[in-house]
């Protein structure tokens, strides 16, 4: 990538960082993407699955096709960085690097638009609402795969702590099935000085919180992976009253459906039985997503594309218990999801941290890999 394009992409990335929007609210971000695609001369369709944009480049006589995807939304986090381009939206920031992913995909469009050395169709999928707001599902429901045919699909995520510009390609699972739960215990309210007249959900919830930690320790095969974490506890309004109910909310992560089903069964059983022990009721609500799992041929294409692009290719990183809704695309099409190194963690700036910032120095590598994997895929054998 030449210096002029790198400088342009850096300016675009910093504009997006300064103007973050939450999932399902990416109107200005989508308009910015459309504006830059128009400048590049790449045709596009807007309004796909909400604020999604799909751009299409076709060259030569080949009927082969491939998809490249980037996410566009930000997070409800107040930025702590002191940057010239820090977030101008109160309590919203690009704390996961989607500003960089979007810019990298625009860069790939720029590279492929000027490259005569390929034949086929490349679909550039700019997805809204990745951060738990159903963006991938919305695009799929809007017929993105049927309206914009693609035999395979690829995407990337920046990874703090991995060498800047290196890529990590996993065999099989990359990220876990993300899940959420809410458990409400309902007892009988009353005066805190007369506890015998009540059924105290706070005491019961204390037992439940401890008991839930036995699920991974005692109900999951030690050779498998799972997480159960409680992030919220809510109950009570006064120091001298025992409340009617208390609820907790948390997350669970698994890679294998059988482990997930076992975990959910134990979650419900433990909650109901502890509630019964303390003469009260339990309501359990759960949702879960899909694990992000590379298909084997596409994983090899992703690694080969990294080598062609002159990047360091790592095959030794473990999968992460974070989640990613690109998994829904991989349920429908063969593909691969890779990590690209963001470089050393600075000032605690991990993903979803208020001091995170995407490393603009890796934009040539990110755009270069996306362009390379598109061309590599179009040259490869068609998937079965």
How does this model look, in words?
By secondary structure, the protein is an alpha/beta fold. It contains 11 helices and 16 strands. The strands form 4 sheets. An 8-stranded mixed beta sheet has the order 1-2-4-3-5-16-6-15, sandwiched between helices. A 4-stranded antiparallel beta sheet has the order 10-12-8-13. Helix 3 (98-113) links the parallel strand 3 (65-71) and strand 4 (120-127). Helix 3 packs across helix 11 (363-379), helix 6 runs antiparallel to helix 8 and helix 9 crosses helix 11. The longest helix is centred in the C-terminal third of the chain and has 21 residues, at 257-277. The chain is elongated and about 80 Å long. The model has no long low-confidence stretch (mean pLDDT 97).
């Amino acid at each position: 990538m030449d210096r002029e394009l790198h400088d342009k992409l850096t300016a675009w990335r910093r504009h997006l960082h300064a103007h973050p929007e939450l999932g399902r609210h990416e109107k200005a971000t989508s308009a910015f993407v459309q504006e830059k695609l128009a400048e590049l001369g790449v045709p596009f369709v807007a309004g796909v699955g909400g604020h999604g944009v799909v751009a299409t480049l076709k060259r030569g006589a080949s009927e082969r096709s491939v998809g490249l995807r980037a996410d566009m939304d930000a997070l409800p986090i107040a930025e702590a960085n002191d940057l010239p381009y820090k977030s101008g939206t109160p309590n919203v920031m690009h704390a996961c690097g989607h500003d960089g992913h979007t810019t990298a995909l625009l860069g790939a469009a720029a590279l492929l638009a000027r490259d005569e050395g390929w034949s086929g169709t490349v679909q550039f999928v700019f997805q809204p609402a990745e951060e738990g707001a159903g963006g991938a599902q919305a695009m799929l429901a809007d017929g993105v795969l049927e309206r914009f045919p693609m035999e395979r699909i690829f995407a990337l995520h920046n990874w703090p702590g991995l060498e800047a510009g290196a890529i990590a390609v996993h065999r099989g699972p990359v990220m876990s099935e993300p899940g959420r739960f809410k458990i409400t215990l309902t007892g009988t309210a009353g005066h805190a000085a007369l506890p015998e007249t009540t059924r105290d959900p706070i005491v019961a919830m204390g037992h439940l919180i401890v008991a839930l930690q036995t699920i991974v320790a005692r109900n999951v095969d030690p050779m498998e992976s799972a997480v159960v974490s409680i992030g919220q506890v809510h109950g009570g309004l006064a120091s001298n009253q025992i409340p009617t109910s208390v609820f907790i909310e948390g997350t669970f992560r698994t890679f294998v459906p059988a482990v997930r089903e076992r975990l959910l069964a134990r979650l419900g059983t433990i909650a109901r039985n502890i509630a019964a022990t303390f003469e009260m009721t339990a309501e359990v609500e759960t949702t879960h997503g899909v694990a992000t799992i590379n298909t084997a041929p596409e994983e090899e294409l992703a690694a080969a594309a990294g080598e062609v692009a002159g990047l360091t290719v790592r095959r030794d990183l473990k999968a992460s218990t974070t989640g990613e809704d690109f998994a829904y695309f991989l349920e429908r099409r063969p593909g691969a999801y890779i990590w690209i190194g963001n470089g050393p963690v600075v000032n605690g700036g991990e993903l979803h941290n208020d001091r995170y910032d995407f490393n603009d120095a890796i934009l040539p590598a990110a755009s270069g890999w996306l362009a390379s994997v598109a061309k590599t895929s179009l040259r490869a054998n068609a998937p079965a």
